Amino acid sequence: MLLIGGGTLVALSGFAFLAGLTDSIVGGGGLIQVPALLVLLPGVPLPALLGTNKLASSMGTSAAVLRYARGLKIDWRICVPAALAAFGCSFLGARAVSVIHESTLRPLVLALLVGVALYTWRARDFGAIHAPRLAEGPDVLWALAVGAALGFYDGFFGPGVGSFLIFLFVGLFGFDFLAATSSAKVVNLGSNLSAALYFAATDQIVYRAALPMGACSIAGAIVGSRLALSRGVGLVRIVLLIVVGALILKLGYDFLRT
User: Tens digit of pLDDT for each residue in 93-130?
Assistant: First the structure.
C-alpha cells in the first residue's frame, strides 16, 4: 500500500478544491490537478496518477451537474445523447493511447485553442444570448457527433475539452455561456466516468489520494457553479479566456520543449 503523508494529502486536497472550482465554470481543472499529482506523488506511475485525477474529477463534475440542474433548465434531450456518446468514445480514446502518440495532436489542439481564444475575445456578444438555432432531429445528431469526438479526445489526450465543449455549445447550438457550461458538464461527466471506470478496472487509481481529493473537488464544484449561476455569462466568458490562455501557454511550452 502506498503511504501518503498527511501534509501531502492536505496539499492535494487543496489543489483539488481549486480544480473543482475552475472546472465547474469552464473546465480546465486538469491544469491544476494533474501537475499537483505529478509534483506531490513523484514515485507513482503516470497511469495511476491519471486514474486518480479522473476519479476525483468525476466526483466534482457530478456535483457541478447536480447544482446546475437545480439552478438552470438543462436541455437533457441534447445533453444525454452527447454524454452517452462521450462515455463510449472516451473508453476508446483511452485504449488508443497505446496506438497513437498524443504528440501528433498537440500542434492541432494548440491551433484550435488559439482560434477559440481569439474568436471569444473579439466577438463581445458571443455567448451572451441563449437562442438555440438547430431544428429538432439534426440537433441530436450533432450532439452525438460532438459527444463522440470530444469524448474520444478526452480519453486520449484531454487538455481543453471543457473549453471546446462550451465553445461548440455556444457556436453550434446557439446556447449562451451559462447554458453551454451546464451542458458541457453533463457531457464531460460521461467522458470522465468512462475513463475513471477504465482506470479502476485496470487497478490504476490511488484511492487514498483520490477519495479525499474527490470530496474537495465536490466542494470546489459547488462553490464554482454557484458563482457561475450568480454572476452569469460575463464570469464564464472571462474565466474561459483565462483558462484557454493558460492552456495555450502550457501546450506551447510543451511543444517547444520537445
Answer: 877 765 666 666 678 778 888 888 888 887 767 665 76
Question: Would you say the C-alpha torsion 253, 17, 13, 147 has a positive or negative sign?
Answer: negative
Which three cell numbers, joined as nine digits, stand for 229? Answer: 449561476
Q: How far is the CA of 228 from the CAs of 56, 62, 235, in angstroms?
A: 21, 16, 6
- Whose grid coordinates read 501528433? 104
- Is residue 82 exposed (0-12), middle (13-18) or buried (19+ Cβ within 10 Å)? buried
CB 128 within 8 A of CB 233: yes
- Write out pLDDT tens, residues 52-85: 999 999 999 999 999 999 999 899 999 999 999 9
- Are the CB atoms for 233 and 19 separated by under 8 Å? no
Angle at 132 between CA 164 and CA 154, to 5 degrees: 20
* Distant-in-sequence, close-in-space partners of 205: CB < 8 Å, separation ≥ 6: 48, 51, 52, 54, 55, 196, 199
For the entire predicted model, the pTM comes to 0.87
